[in-house]
Amino acid sequence: MSVAQPCYDRSRLTPGIVHIGLGNFHRAHMAVYLDDLFARGEDHDWAILGAGVRPADARMRDALKAQDCLSTVIELDPEGKRARRIGAMIDFIAVDPSNGPLIAAMSRPEIRIVSLTVTEGGYFIDPATGRFDPSAPDIVADSAAPDRPTTAFGAIIAALRNRREAGVAPFTVLSCDNLPGNGDAARTATVGLARLSDPDLAEWIDATATFPNGMVDRIAPATGPRECAMAAAFGLDDPVPVTCEPFRQWALEDRFASGRPALEKVGVTFTSDVHAFETMKIRILNGGHAIIAYPGGIKGIGHVHDVMADETIAAFLDRIETDEILPIVPPVPGQDLDDYKRLIRDRFANPEIADTARRLCFDGSNRQPKFIIPSIRDNIARGVMPEGLILASALWCRYCYGIDEHGQAIAPNDPNWETLTAAAHEAKQNPARWIAMRAIYGDLADDRDVVAAFADALHLVWSQGVDAAMSQYIANRPDRARHS
């Protein structure tokens, strides 16, 4: 099988971007767009310098440096796999506990964008309030020692300080993480942390740097022996290949402090309506992941395509998305929401991806407030009690109990697993205990109708089982208008 190689002279590339967090998603998404752009013979001064702030990033650096920073990307189309080598990254900055090499690289004038994939929970923002959390231990440490930061945002601030002192324009901070208002979140984290040690610098950053919002989308599962074997089948000895679905999408605000590559030439949508794209994706796709993952996990189903082959779970997803999610998603330019919903179902069902329910279940304490609870709130605002979404949240609670329906232990799968498991055990007898987690549910804990609906849903799950609970919701289309 053939492997597509970069069709441009990589020796002539020069860096314009530092990317922090060289996980699978970045290498299957942003790096691929830039590779496509470079293949057109354009913008060769926008190559990527990889970077990281965690010990695991050092291992990724070693693996990629050993292969000249090339990444293998294998598209898992059911009609046939395609492999290519992505050459958009030309070096990987040394990973250091105090981030000195990273700060030095970001201080260089030719670096005009610093992009990030540091996970949804890496922005130090309280999920219930949307406010910066100055009490987070890493933030406290960075604010006390701003010259030796351990976080990505601390390093960004240190580099921006250097640039201001040198009279160099600020770079754009471009979040590529999958969270609502990712650019706004990056601004909040950067300015919030800077304000703790240098208020004047914080004001300069807020006034001069830019933090565009963007919607990113591509499913790129974790790499394991299966993925390495795929690379080997293409004749590649690569310990860190990336597999992904054929689909990809990126919508961005056109707000860049020091210029940008012409990504619109390779399929990126620049729009002032990023929020609409973002809401569509987060509510339908990411919310859909949560809707199917927890019943799949409770039933002991390993792969996402097998979860979608479960007729009850598939029908559960369709009913919630049709009745409770599509009606609250605003119009998206050039997009039919029913078509998008069908596309999502097909993407979830792709057997080549072999994504796992466990991956989708991970970090519910951070993801539920972003992907499920806002849809609950929006339905309540339109006078509808969203029984399906509330049942989906009750299924998350049941999953966090830590034992599936076959009596098998569910391994810890959340940074707050012990707290969640304790709450789930209490909620079995007192469901209000779960909703009382205000860091997740906020003031929904004070809504008697929501608390009662959650209690009914969780009781049904425990008394009759997951399938019966979903089936009852699917079969019944009661008057769902809210009653106080």
Description:
By secondary structure, the chain is an alpha/beta fold. It contains 22 helices and 12 strands. The strands form 3 sheets. Strands 6-3-2-7-8 form a 5-stranded parallel β-sheet, sandwiched between helices. Strand 4 (71-77) and strand 5 (80-86) form a beta hairpin. Helix 4 packs across helix 6 (152-166) and helix 10 runs parallel beside helix 13. The N and C termini lie far apart (63 Å). Mean pLDDT is 95; it is low at 479-484.
List the helices and strands and how they pair.
Blueprint: E1 3-4, E2 15-20, H1 24-28, H2 30-39, E3 47-51, H3 55-65, E4 71-77, E5 80-86, E6 89-92, H4 100-107, E7 113-116, H5 137-144, H6 152-166, E8 172-175, H7 182-197, H8 199-208, E9 214-217, H9 225-233, E10 242-244, E11 249-252, E12 269-270, H10 274-298, H11 304-309, H12 311-325, H13 337-348, H14 357-361, H15 364-371, H16 373-381, H17 387-400, H18 417-427, H19 432-435, H20 438-441, H21 448-464, H22 466-475
